[in-house]
From TrEMBL:
<protein>
    <recommendedName>
        <fullName>SPEF2 C-terminal domain-containing protein</fullName>
    </recommendedName>
</protein>
<dbReference type="Pfam" id="PF24082">
    <property type="entry name" value="SPEF2_C"/>
</dbReference>
<dbReference type="InterPro" id="IPR052634">
    <property type="entry name" value="Sperm_flagellar-bone_growth"/>
</dbReference>
<dbReference type="InterPro" id="IPR056199">
    <property type="entry name" value="SPEF2_C"/>
</dbReference>
<feature type="domain" description="SPEF2 C-terminal">
    <location>
        <begin position="3"/>
        <end position="162"/>
    </location>
</feature>
Length: 292
């Protein structure tokens, strides 16, 4: 048997002094509404630093993945993934000709690409494959969870959505005489809207983003949020919004029209799934306190 302390010497010093409240805060971000930890999100945070991706970086990477996806299945094998250029590149590990005893510069970014495949690929079958949209959605996270949600929605719909800052140009939902939101908002054209306001969103796009990461838990998750009628992000509830706006479940609705609905606004602002997990800053204060 191995001791519980085996391998602890490899952990960063700041991880050795974390407090229980800090650990609970991190676990809350990793688990969100479920009782399970999203270990892929944890490993991605632990792999920092890696070059951040802009919204267009993610969309261009998505397009490159689609180009090598010859079966149009939404998944790529390892050899196909190796052909995809991410938003960062590695470098060749060359030995120093002046001093052969000096080890070559470690190609960290090149190794990260390999690590990302190992983390996000499905290894259950004899030939592993990677759901590239699912992987890229993890990289949509942002310090502002609303901005992260919109980046994720851009990937799910394969078209750029507006930034969170531009949402102030949209009119707010109507309120009734008692100050509460009415079920159907007043439909107005936004003032000087960016072109992304006209991007089309389907119900499937919304469901994919709002429930990202839950599909991997479907065999063990006892209370599936997608089937709970009282869930804020329940499919039936969101489908009702599309019907109120005059669209069928399978029809796409312009973003600016969809966002004016109070239920959609609540969902977008409540979703914390795309908030960046910063382990370094989360654990920093504990290491500082230990020296005081």
């Amino acid at each position: 048997m191995q001791a519980l302390t085996h391998g602890m010497e490899l952990l960063p010093d700041s991880w050795m002094n974390i407090t229980q409240p800090q650990l609970q805060d991190v676990c809350a971000l990793l688990a969100l509404e479920t009782e399970f930890i999203d270990w892929r999100k944890f490993l991605l945070a632990a792999a920092q630093p890696w070059p951040p991706a802009s919204k267009m970086d993610l969309l261009l990477t998505l397009e490159r993945c689609r180009e090598v996806d010859s079966s149009f299945s939404g998944r790529v094998a390892r050899d196909q993934f190796d052909q995809v250029e991410l938003w960062f590149t590695g470098q060749q590990e060359l030995e120093n000709p002046q001093d052969p005893d000096v080890p070559p510069i470690f190609d960290r970014q090149g190794k990260l690409k390999n690590a990302f495949y190992q983390i996000f690929a499905d290894h259950k079958d004899s030939v592993s494959t990677l759901d590239y949209v699912d992987m890229l959605l993890y990289f949509a996270a942002d310090p502002d969870p609303l901005e992260g949600f919109l980046r994720g929605l851009s990937l799910a719909s394969n078209q750029p959505m507006p930034s969170s800052k531009s949402l102030v140009h949209l009119p707010q939902p109507m309120t009734d005489d008692y100050g509460g939101d009415v079920s159907v908002p007043q439909i107005q054209e936004p003032t000087s809207p960016p072109p992304e306001m006209d991007s089309l969103v389907t119900l499937e796009n919304l469901m994919k983003v709002l429930h990202h990461g839950e599909g991997r838990l479907e065999d063990t998750y006892r209370l599936s949020l997608t089937t709970d009628p009282d869930d804020t992000f329940a499919r039936e509830r969101l489908a009702g919004v599309f019907l109120e706006l005059g669209a069928e479940e399978t029809e796409a609705v312009p973003f600016h029209l969809l966002y004016q609905h109070p239920i959609i606004q609540d969902c977008m602002h409540m979703c914390q799934r795309f908030k960046t997990l910063d382990l370094r800053n989360s654990f920093k204060s504990s290491s500082v306190d230990s020296f005081e």
